Amino acid sequence: MARQRPNILVTGTPGTGKTTMSSALAEETQLRHINIGELVKAKSLHDGWDNELDCYVINEDLVCDELEDMMEEGGNIVDYHGCDFFPERWFDLVVVLQTDNTVLYDRLTQRGYSGSKLSNNVECEIFQTLLEEAKESYPENIVQPLKSDSIEDISTNLASLTDWVRRWQPST
């Protein structure tokens, strides 16, 4: 049975605006927003805490098992900074948010990131690690990089993505 509503992955380095974009898009389109970080915490889909990176060690198999039925139904916006472990068949569009390094540095500093966590994330953005990961994991024609430096960028992206959802048709 084909999905009647699309599934979208919103990915990018921490601080690029994934949750802001996903929440706004969910509100505009009535798709379900799934924040993987929150899901991992709420359902204990992890293998413990990483003190160095100050985050949970996600159990990718548990996450995929938890999402399987919802993703088959369709109508989801998945929000996470990684993308290579999700099955390719789940997504109709993969959005990679990208932010200027100066803007990203300021955002992450305001969040309290410091030391290696701050530098690792800024380097990830400099080297476009998430964009490359998305291009290697999904058909390139569904991977869409979007600039996410300002409120204006968010508004433009939201309008474009809302229009995409409204035009989307299930594949036969």
Automatic annotation (TrEMBL):
GO terms for biological process: ribosomal small subunit biogenesis; rRNA processing. It comes from the Eukaryota. Residues 35-58 are annotated as: NMPbind. Residues 110-120 are annotated as: LID. This is Adenylate kinase isoenzyme 6 homolog. Its EC number is 2.7.4.3. It catalyses: ATP + H2O = ADP + phosphate + H(+); AMP + ATP = 2 ADP. ATP binds at residues 15, 17-20, 111. Its main location: cytoplasm. PANTHER family: ADENYLATE KINASE ISOENZYME 6, POS9-ACTIVATING FACTOR FAP7-RELATED. SUPFAM superfamilies: P-loop containing nucleoside triphosphate hydrolases (SSF52540). One of its GO terms (molecular function) is AMP kinase activity. It comes from Rosa chinensis (China rose). Keywords: ATP-binding, Cytoplasm, Kinase, Nucleotide-binding, Nucleus, Ribosome biogenesis, rRNA processing, Transferase. It is found in: Cytoplasm; Nucleus. It is an enzyme of class 2 (transferase). Broad-specificity nucleoside monophosphate (NMP) kinase that catalyzes the reversible transfer of the terminal phosphate group between nucleoside triphosphates and monophosphates. Has also ATPase activity. Involved in the late cytoplasmic maturation steps of the 40S ribosomal particles, specifically 18S rRNA maturation. While NMP activity is not required for ribosome maturation, ATPase activity is. Associates transiently with small ribosomal subunit protein uS11. ATP hydrolysis breaks the interaction with uS11. Residues 1-20 are annotated as: Disordered. One of its GO terms (cellular component) is nucleus. Interacts with small ribosomal subunit protein uS11. Not a structural component of 43S pre-ribosomes, but transiently interacts with them by binding to uS11. Belongs to the adenylate kinase family. AK6 subfamily. It holds the Pfam family AAA_18.
